[in-house]
Amino acid sequence: MNGAKRGRAAQQGVDDIPVAHRSTPKSSSRASGFSPLANAVAAMVVVLTALALIFPQPLRRLLGPPPIQGLNARPGIDGRLLGHFPYGEIRSRELTPIAPGIELQRDAAESFAAMQAAAAAEGMDLVVLSGYRSTSLQKHLFFDVKAERNQTARERALVSAPPGYSEHATGFALDIGDGNAAGTNLSQSFDQTAAFAWLQANAARYQFALSFPRSNAQGVNYEPWHWRYEGSTDALKVFEPAQRLAK
Q1: What is the C-alpha separation between 111 and 207, in angstroms, rounded?
Q2: How far apart are CA 207 and CA 227, in angstroms?
Q3: How far is it, in rounded angstroms, from Cα 97 to Cα 209?
Q4: Whole-angstrom distance, CA of residue 25 vs CA of residue 39
Q5: Could you write out the DSSP letters of every residue in 21-84?
Q6: Cα 196 to the center of its chain, rounded Å
Q7: Are 96 and 109 in contact (CB under 8 A)?
Q8: pLDDT in tens, the chain (247 residues)
Q9: CA distances (Å), 31 to each of 36, 40, 181, in order?
Q10: How far is CA 86 from CA 146, 167, 231, in A?
Q11: What DSSP designation does 9 have?
Q12: Ramachandran region of residue 83, left (φ > 0), alpha (ψ -120 to 50) or beta?
């Protein structure tokens, strides 16, 4: 059989195969290594990136969590609500008393007791005003006091964290006053006391840091009385987002 006859025979064999069973060449998109879906996803990424650069705030609101019930606000991309990071509530078995009706996480309590004793040896009277606070108590301090003072949520958040967003719930944070100047308790004038000056010079030795210094990156009012313990791996994990923002 010559070449022409063989070609006609091969073609006739192909024609005898039903169309549905014939193999078809691969599409150009498969040959190039990109499927239509992959191309569509890539195009969407480009569009979203462009929108993020042109309209960053609306896009963040679209992609962010839903608004919190009872507040005209929603958490940001980093989890913050009205400036405050979210914090889980410590388990009760990890708490220990440090004063009548006041508890702290065990490591924080031990370190504060040592700091308090060192301050007393130099004539300072460090008084703990508040330690661990439950989420239910924080709810009262935020919403009920907000209503009593006719404050907006944003105004209230400058001085008090919404429930679920308070450092006090962790058991690592406390409010400190000067027993020799009780009139400055929970006031910015506390930073004029000898106790505050001592804390600034010595608190880091006992692993305590000021949570909300002046012009802090979270946008929370200056609170010279509010300190948090950062002397354990657990505490560092809890406050890492806040520390990263402050850098």
Answers
A1: 8
A2: 10
A3: 21
A4: 21
A5: GS--PPPHHHHHT--HHHHHHHHHHHHHHHHHHHSHHHHHHHHSPPPPTTSS----TTS-BTTB
A6: 28
A7: yes
A8: 555 555 454 455 545 545 444 444 454 444 445 677 777 777 777 766 665 566 554 544 444 445 455 565 678 889 999 999 999 999 999 999 999 999 999 999 999 999 999 999 999 999 999 999 999 999 999 999 999 999 999 999 999 999 999 999 999 999 999 999 999 999 999 999 999 999 999 999 999 999 999 999 999 999 999 999 999 999 999 999 999 999 8
A9: 12, 17, 79
A10: 20, 8, 20
A11: H
A12: left
Q: Of 141, 177, 173, 171, nearest to 157 (Cα)? A: 141
Rounded CA separation 229/115 (Å): 12
Separation CA 92–CA 89 (nearest Å): 9
Collapsing DSSP to helix, strand or coil, 217 comes out as: coil
Residue 142: both structure tokens together? 């935020």
Q: Tokens representing 64?
A: 């962010």
Backbone phi and psi for residue 174, each to the nearest 5 degrees, phi listed first: -150, 160
